[in-house]
Amino acid sequence: MTTSIFDSRVYRPTAGFMDAPVTWTLDGCRLAIVGMPFDCGIHPTRIGSRLGPASIREQSGLVRPYHPPLDDTNPLSELGVIDCGDALVTPGRPEPSFEVMEEAVWRIAREGVATLTMGGDGLVTLPQLRAWRRIHDDLCVIHVDAHTDAYPVTGQDRVSPATTFTIAAEEGLIDAASTFHVGARGPVFMGGVFEHTKGIGYHLIPDVEMRRQGLEATASLLQERLAGRKVYLCWDMDVFDPSCAPGVATPTWEGLSAAEGLGFLRSLAGLDIVSVDVNTVSPPHDVGGMTAFLAGCVMLEGMRLVAASPSLDRQ
């Protein structure tokens, strides 16, 4: 007997990423895709990440599953990948949208299936962490981003993409002492941001340090420190340089090249990754869909990471 997780209050059907089957039946599935078409609508100059999932799916027609000579397997077939469509959110309304995003992920995670999601701005990570916290009470995070998203919480801006990981720590959703923010760099709009991030208890590996010690050494450190732990991988597309990913909410120069970023992803293989969260594609600011295309490639590498995870049982 097959059981569908579909609920019209939670999911909206869409086309399938890389032509993955659009279904809500998890039999034989080890990884399910969900779009998170949400942004707060508060960015001073760039609003549009709510359109990210649709653009990534469109550009996924350019993504090919085989990658010789590095990998000659098809992770979609290996994992039985399905696309559950988009979470039925309302951009600009965080709290009701959070409830839907959490439920959309929870319905998949509780069945022992990994999730691969696409945003949406960086705030879509918070409800997903709430969902995974219900499965793993010692969840670790690798947050690869040009920004820490762990800014001080103040007044009316308490809930924003800048405070995602501040709130996550306050709510005890993740193990801050085993969570790494990787690739952060300036300029930023306020002082003391890096010190605040470290003061929460997070490990911070800024871009300058990552480059000084080398990407391979940084990945080796993560492999060593997080071996045997359940890991949530959050990948913000603005960690890439705007020369290869211009369509993001907050572009920041001196980022990773496409080759550096995708290579760094591959070097994380072997960690027990339960979820991959790719966010902050903003199609109105993209050029020829290149950021969405690159995000699709990041998602494909995310599938390979899940396929290489040491534990098959996510419960």
Structure commentary:
α1 crosses α10 (290-307), α3 crosses α4 (125-133) and α4 (125-133) runs parallel beside α5 (164-170). The chain has a nine-stranded mixed beta sheet, sandwiched between helices. With 315 residues, it is an alpha/beta fold. Helices cover 31% and strands 15% of the residues. The chain has one domain (11-307): Ureohydrolase domain (Arginase, Chain A, 3-Layer(aba) Sandwich). The two termini are 21 Å apart.
Give keywords.
alpha/beta; Arginase, Chain A; 9-stranded mixed beta sheet; 9 strands
User: What is the residue-averaged pLDDT?
Assistant: 96
Looking at CATH, which topology would you report? Arginase, Chain A
CATH superfamily: Ureohydrolase domain
Q: How much helix, percentage-wise, in residues? A: 25-40%
Alpha-beta content class: alpha/beta
CATH architecture: 3-Layer(aba) Sandwich
List the helices and strands and how they pair.
Blueprint: E1 11-12, E2 31-36, H1 52-59, H2 75-79, E3 82-87, H3 94-109, E4 114-119, H4 125-133, E5 140-144, H5 164-170, E6 180-182, H6 193-200, E7 203-205, H7 207-213, H8 215-226, E8 230-236, H9 258-266, E9 272-279, H10 290-307
Parallel strand pairs: 2-3, 2-4, 4-9, 5-6, 5-8, 6-7, 8-9
Antiparallel strand pairs: 1-3
Helix pairs in contact: 1-10, 3-4, 4-5, 9-10
